[in-house]
Amino acid sequence: MEIVRSQRKSPLPIVVSTIPLYRSTPELEVRLEDFELFAVDRLRVLQGISHGLSRAKKPEEMEKLVSDLWKAHMRHPLASEVINKDIISHFVLRLVYCRTEDLRKWFLAMESTLFRYRFRSESFEAQRALLAEFDLPYKAVSIAEFESVKEKLLQVARSLGQPQTSVDVLFYKVPFEEVPELVAGRRVYIQKGHAYIAMNQVVSLVVTQFRSHLSKALILTNRKWTSTIREQEKDRLTPIVEALSTSYLGPDCSQPKEYAEISLKDIDQVAKRSFPLCMHHLFEKLREDHHLKYGGRMQLGLFLKGVGLKLDDALAFWKAEFSIKVGPERFDKEYAYSIRHSFGKEGKRVDYTPYSCQKVISSTPGVGDHHGCPYRHFSEENLRASLSKMGVSNRAMEDVMEKVRNKHYQLACTLTFEAIHGSSCDSGINHPNQYFAESRKILLPKNNSAA
């Protein structure tokens, strides 16, 4: 796949099945802007799938969710280009997510889930065509062999509440280790090390094959990335690739929205009631130690800027705290410039935006640092203590801790929000400033009505 800056030439027709298997890098020219835009669109689909899975949606709910996400984000003005967008976006994200074990694991799980539900939505004929593309060494069970195991297959069907198995149903006999999820769920008949799977269960077999191929491909891509691509493309593609895995794809949180403005006089009360745990912890540490290291200052400072703290108030806020420890003169000399810089008033005058959950989660705080995501970096004991202090009940806390153990940190934050506010947040928490804005929407009407 070649990346070009000029207008894309008309590609040669590509003969592919309804769902590509992404076996080899496509011979396509891709405009630099499409390289990123296509990847972002697919990433929206994968993040939507991740949220659905973490919410434990049922298979039929996931099927609808995947279909809706695909229709919403993977469209193209030219119908002939939809398949190219599909292929290009997959390979771009393969490059993005090959770089660490955690990234590979997430991408592998989401792409496999996407493939599963796309396969399930295909017609019987399309499924058989895709099965043939895998070139698997399995043949359909003959009528004679089917008759010999028919009663056992009927027992399995009855135990699953499925219709009676008939000779018209196509079955395959495969090594049982190739359909682990069916074996684990006791949804197949096993004899002499082989599982008999019906055509409507073939999705488990092809997903296993798809996942195995993609897993190996990610390792090979990582080797290419570290050995050549990263250095060769350091001035063009590398910055895009390294930024995509932590991209925030939700609404703009760089400016305060309705309900989202604070002043110095009520900042402590607002922090206690409406700051997410990551910012609540930083705020408390600032009040306690009268100092934060650079990572903490940036994370909290940009958050406060995003919820409406003006530059003059921000300077007064930080100076009041830091002066207790370092004195007002040293603050003016060493710290004030950085605050003005974050507001775009110094240096290159870039108007910096608040950190998203992805960026907060991906940070790696060192000794003495307090930034990052508490759901990821706190010990269980410290996390429980912090959540209890915020008002999370014991019952809700167990749900939060379960999500933390499964590394669903944003959902853990979402459950914390719901427990504290007594209100659901179906969209999930994807940004600390979103948490704040949603909190104020809930709390301020109650305050006004009480008044």
Automatic annotation (TrEMBL):
Q: What keywords are annotated for this sequence in UniProt?
A: 4Fe-4S, DNA replication, DNA-binding, Iron, Iron-sulfur, Metal-binding, Primosome
User: Which cofactor does this sequence's record say it needs?
Assistant: [4Fe-4S] cluster
Which residues are [4Fe-4S] cluster-binding? C278, C357, C373, C413
Boundaries of every DNA primase large subunit C-terminal domain copy: 268-436
- One GO cellular component term, please give it: alpha DNA polymerase:primase complex
Q: Do the record's keywords include Metal-binding? A: yes
* Record keyword Glycoprotein present: no
TM spans, by residue? none
- Domain of life assignment: Eukaryota
Return the InterPro entries for the record: DNA_primase_C, DNA_primase_lsu_euk, DNA_primase_lsu_euk/arc
A Gene Ontology annotation in the biological process aspect, one of them, is:
DNA replication, synthesis of primer
Q: Name one GO molecular function term.
A: 4 iron, 4 sulfur cluster binding
Note the Gene3D superfamilies from the entry.
1.20.930.80
Name the family the entry cites: Belongs to the eukaryotic-type primase large subunit family.
What is this protein identified as? DNA primase large subunit C-terminal domain-containing protein
Q: Which organism is it from?
A: Nepenthes gracilis
